[in-house]
């Protein structure tokens, strides 16, 4: 099989039914996407395929069409993505386990909607669970990231 992951072509042998998450972690060495539930309910495994946020724990690798971006590939040119910068500025992370998935979902939201309302944020982030309960900080970070993107930062 061949995938483009974070801008690089990788080739590997895998059962086409293997979840993309395990192909990324075990075969491509990408440890950002996390296993949380295995049923696409928690969001810890979120990656982008063709710019859209998808849960990689239930998507068979053989069904992947388009470039895969993980949290490791979100930043460009050595500069943090605005969502990553906002996460730091707003001190979102506590335990950090869910953060890669949260950030990937937030980045996809801002690509589709550069000025989301609270309701837009709630809908887009629904299904991304945070055991530490940092939801108010997550919302604040998404709003800050939207402002950073608008300012071209």
Automatic annotation (TrEMBL):
SUPFAM superfamilies: 2Fe-2S ferredoxin-like, CO dehydrogenase ISP C-domain like. Pfam families: Fer2 (PF00111), Fer2_2 (PF01799). Residues 1-74 form the 2Fe-2S ferredoxin-type domain. Keywords: 2Fe-2S, Iron, Iron-sulfur, Metal-binding, Oxidoreductase. Gene3D superfamilies: 3.10.20.30, [2Fe-2S]-binding domain (1.10.150.120). GO terms for molecular function: 2 iron, 2 sulfur cluster binding; metal ion binding; oxidoreductase activity. This is (2Fe-2S)-binding domain-containing protein. The lineage of its organism: Bacteria, Pseudomonadati, Pseudomonadota, Alphaproteobacteria, Hyphomicrobiales.
